[in-house]
Every structure is written in structure tokens, then in C-alpha cells.
Design brief:
By secondary structure, this protein is an alpha/beta fold. It folds into 2 domains: 122 residues, Glycogen Phosphorylase B (Rossmann fold, 3-Layer(aba) Sandwich); 67 residues, no CATH class. A 6-stranded parallel sheet has the order 2-1-3-4-5-6, with helices on both faces. Helix 2 packs parallel to helix 4. The two termini are 33 Å apart.
């Protein structure tokens, strides 16, 4: 199939949307499909379109529905649109209506949707390759937990640091958090929360994360 994959961000942003789109493209190409990755649908013919983010890709979703009526249109609800935009933004709500299939990344995302849209919703869990796991150095004196994701209010990113404070003294758990601050107040909180159990290292490249 000839597929168009729309993501609202460029790779330079190192956003979750771009990482997800790049992963989807690799998977779909391996399955034998021809995939064109773009930030905006331009009217080109294709068999189906996959769009990430109901609000930010709303123009592309509406354009595809108008110019290619009846063709499959999947909208992937990636985070801020699922937990914020679809509840009050008209363009995001319009995207839900136009989609022939909705995708959420974890099962508790389904109840966030209006009941009429749930039958056309599917859960696709994110995954990660374990091909390098056997070569990683595993700490021998403590249990290390990695938390990866940009610091933004919707993700409640200071929660790991707060949870670390509740651990008993004998706990072997240590936490390291990686992600660029999209809110300066959250960055200040993450810096001040540093302790023997928790540290924030800021934004890192995808390969390093």
C-alpha cells in the first residue's frame, strides 16, 4: 500500500510524536508498504493516511477526508491531544469524527474518548528493542530506574522525585530522569529535587536515552 504518515513535528524537535512516526515508518516499510512521512498532507494520492495528534494535524486530517473520501484514515492520539485537546478543542474533536480508526497507546486512553468513538479505537502499545540489553552494565549494589520523557505539566514529571522521597531507607532503588524541560518551573523543581536517590540529567539524544 502507498501510505501517507503525518506528524506535526520535524526530527530536530526530538519530540515523542516524531519518534513515534519514525518507528511506525520503519515497521510499515518492513511489512512491505511504501510510506511517505510528512508534516502536512498536500493532497497527494495514497491508499490510506495515518496522522499523529488530533489537534496539530487537524488541517491534514480534514484535507485528506475531503479529497480522499472513503479511504482509511487513522488518527493516533499521542498524549496532549488525548488528555487535553479533545476535551475542549473543536479542531481536535472534528478529527475524532473524521477518523475511520483511532489509536491510543495504552488501554486507559480509551475511557478518555466519547463513548461513540470507542468502538473504532484500538490500543497499540509502544515497544523497544531489547537487542542491546545483554551488553548493558547492570548496577550490582542498587536497582536503577530510568524515567524518559520531556518535562511538561501533562506528564506530572516531578512524580518520580516525589515518590523517591517515600522509599524506606533500606531501599536499593535509584532514579535517573531524562527529558528536556518544556516548562521552566518544572525544570527548577527537577533540579532542586536532586538527592541520593533521584537526579535529572536534562535532554539527551534518542540513542542515548
Amino acid at each position: 500500500m502507498n501510505l501517507t504518515l503525518v506528524t506535526p513535528q520535524l526530527p530536530e524537535a526530538r519530540s515523542g510524536n516524531w519518534i513515534t512516526a519514525a518507528r511506525y515508518r520503519r515497521i510499515l516499510v518492513r511489512l512491505g508498504h511504501c510510506v511517505r512521512l510528512t508534516t502536512e498532507y498536500d493532497g497527494a494520492d495514497c491508499d490510506a493516511m495515518i496522522a499523529l495528534h488530533a489537534r496539530r494535524s487537524a488541517n491534514s486530517i480534514a484535507s485528506f477526508a475531503e479529497h480522499r473520501p472513503g479511504k482509511p484514515l487513522a488518527v493516533v492520539l499521542t498524549g496532549t491531544d488525548l488528555y487535553r485537546d479533545i476535551h475542549h478543542d473543536a479542531s481536535a474533536q472534528r478529527s475524532l469524527e473524521l477518523a475511520s480508526r483511532l489509536v491510543v497507546l495504552q488501554r486507559m486512553g480509551v475511557p478518555e474518548l466519547p463513548e461513540r468513538h470507542r468502538p473504532k479505537t484500538r490500543v497499540i502499545y509502544q515497544s523497544v528493542s531489547d537487542c542491546h540489553a545483554g551488553h548493558a552494565h547492570r548496577p550490582s549494589t542498587y536497582f536503577k530506574v530510568a524515567v524518559v520523557g520531556h518535562l511538561r505539566p501533562e506528564k506530572d514529571p516531578i512524580r518520580p522525585a516525589l515518590a523517591a522521597r517515600l522509599l524506606p531507607r533500606e531501599s536499593r532503588i535509584k532514579m535517573v530522569q531524562a527529558g528536556s524541560p518544556l516548562d521552566e518551573d518544572l525544570a527548577r523543581q527537577a533540579k532542586s529535587a536532586r538527592s541520593g536517590r533521584y537526579r535529572w540529567i536534562g535532554g539527551v539524544p534518542h540513542w542515548k536515552a
